Amino acid sequence: MAEPKENPLMEKIVSLCKRRGFVYQSSEIYGGINGFWDYGPLGAELKRNVKELWWNTMTREREDVVGLDATIIMSPAIWRASGHVDTFVDMMRECPLTRKRVRSDQVEEQSGTVYRWTGAESATTGWKVQKPFAVLQRKGEHPDSVRKKAREYYAHGAAAAQTGDWKQLGLQGETTAPVENSVDFHPESGVELSESRPFNLMFKTYVGPVESEENVAYLRPETAQAIFAQFKNVLDSTPVKVPFGIGQIGKAFRNEVTPRNFTFRSREFEQMELEFFIPPDEAIEALHGSVATIPAAGHPGEPQPNWGWEAWHRYWVEERVRFYEGIGLTRDTLGLHIQTPEELAHYARACTDILYKFPFSKRDEKGELKGEELEGIAARGDFDLSQHEEHSGKPLTVFDDELRATWGKVSDDKKKDMREKFVAHKTHVFVEKKKLPPEEAATAAQKEAQVFFDRFAKGQYIPHVIEPSAGVDRLILALISNAYYEDEMPDEKGKMQVRVVMKFHPRIAPIKVAVLPLLKNKPDLVTKAREIYSSLKGHFACFYDDGGAIGRRYRRQDEAGTPFCVTIDFDTLGEKGPELKDTVTLRYRDDGRQERVKASELLPLLLEKIR
Ligand code: ATP
């Protein structure tokens, strides 16, 4: 089903983001810059909360994961080893008239009548050009308007003296034909696109004062490679032992051909990545007799020593889904895409994408939103560390004493069996993915097996890796989309009014509590409110607001997604009786419910609700 061009819900979300200070267009006062976004005061808090939660969940609360904070610019050798210099490309097509580019797999379908020409000629100067050009005439477009595009194209690059008045150029060999649902025309200009060409997505820069080829460096297109490059240092400087992980949060840059869907596909964004290193299954088999089998679906439970890559991969998929559930993205808003063998990279054993059903997501045949990738969890084998070992010349193996001792006791039959399985798997991959002829593939697989099992005998191996890789900005957009609600609530006069409310989970809400004195010109109320504000603000993000009618202040906080408002009124001062003295109104954002709470009990109560 085609994607609807206009998306009223997305428009409302984008407008709220600007109005309330979640997200602004970068450099907006200069007309903006495509694919770059800034986070305003509320967005900055939201982003910080999300990153902190990821960091705590993935590193601090685990004994088997440590953190890293590496540079954005690294040795270009890293990107050659990882394959990014050669293969980190998108296929793109260009509009020959406007030079605007689109990703080949993202051209929208269009219908109409295609006009084709073979060239153009000037009747006044005799100047001529011979090359094909085609434009789609879309519904409502006049043929003269498409012909004008053709004249503009043919005249481009030639001097006015040659072409004469370009608007008068004669077009040659005009033919027309109907076109249905074609992806060959630029969505804006309607001009037929060029052939697909690869386009490297890495941003280039120069290190040092000389802009020469040898000084080229890249802004990292992902944070993961730094983890592989520093693997040995982390291993040598901390007490970690395989299985263990290294997590990192940081900026990544991709010169996306078509940034789109608000912040979803940006050119500068942040990632939260974990590389979790595990022994190869052969080591588990040698040490434990066999590799654990896992249930057909669901979380496999607490990690076990006999887990192979499949159990670890499932474990991380389920852990990550639980993380999203813990911040308000319920399972029904998420989806899983299990990559097919054709989609998988040659080195990957499996990859599961966690999707979120954005308002702009495409729909399936039943009209259900399909969802877009928030995070990919890949089982990447030992590809990355092997590549870096090969390119750097530095060994990236780990040593396992127990494995060395056990390997000597493994029967020859078992060793033979393991080797045969290893060779069969590698041969299959080389034939299917690298398209090697079967004999060549078998020889290459035998060679790998030799190196692998020789190392094994010494208790050495290159760890395999499970990589949960998430985008911060996509998650923020998912959380904003998920939080957006419109409902009705009575105003001060009891009249029902439409309100916009951002129902963020309290854990990630930018502001947790707003403290509101009923009136700002009553010193006693203000003093009390300030006192309460001071007692809370050291514990979580609070906001003090004394401007305007109380109902309007509640609405403002609803739009900001503040889960709790604390109102200090005359009852708090004990003016209506001693029993209410030092109590405040606690108002709940989602249903507008209010309750009276002792000021002294506020902090523990709120801490409990925000946890
Ligand atoms: P896509 O297929 O959507 O381009 P990808 O598979 O190339 O994404 P990865 O290389 O696996 O993405 O990156 C891991 C995560 O980083 C993605 O799941 C996504 O959340 C985030 N990410 C990748 N590219 C972008 C981008 N251009 N803008 C925002 N986030 C991004």
Topology of helices and strands:
Layout: H1 8-20, E1 23-25, E2 37-39, H2 41-60, E3 65-68, H3 76-81, H4 84-87, E4 89-94, E5 101-103, E6 110-121, E7 128-137, H5 143-155, H6 160-163, E8 170-172, E9 175-182, E10 197-200, E11 204-206, E12 216-218, H7 224-229, H8 231-237, E13 244-253, E14 268-278, H9 281-288, H10 309-325, E15 334-338, E16 350-356, E17 372-381, H11 383-392, E18 398-399, H12 401-407, H13 412-432, H14 438-457, E19 460-461, E20 464-471, H15 472-483, E21 484-490, E22 496-502, E23 513-517, H16 523-537, E24 542-544, H17 550-560, E25 564-568, E26 583-588, E27 594-598, H18 602-610
Parallel strand pairs: 3-13, 23-24, 23-25
Antiparallel strand pairs: 1-2, 4-5, 4-10, 6-7, 6-8, 6-9, 11-12, 13-14, 14-20, 15-16, 16-17, 17-20, 18-19, 21-22, 25-26, 26-27
Bound molecules: adenosine-5'-triphosphate.
Adenosine-5'-triphosphate (ATP) is lined by residues 222, 254, 256, 265-266, 269, 271, 373-376, 469-471, 473-474.
Report the strand count. Answer: 27
Low-confidence stretches: none
Distance between the termini: 42 Å
Counting helices, strands and paired strands, the structural category is: alpha+beta
- Give Rg in angstroms: 30 Å
How are the strands of the biggest sheet laid out side by side? 3-13-14-20-17-16-15
Give the mean pLDDT. 94
| Percent helix range | 25-40%
Which molecules are bound in this entry? adenosine-5'-triphosphate
Largest sheet entry: 7 strands, mixed
Structure description:
This protein is 33% helix and 25% strand. The protein is built from 18 helices and 27 strands. The protein is flat and about 90 Å long. Bound molecules: adenosine-5'-triphosphate. Adenosine-5'-triphosphate (ATP) binds next to strand 14, strand 17, strand 20 and helix 15.
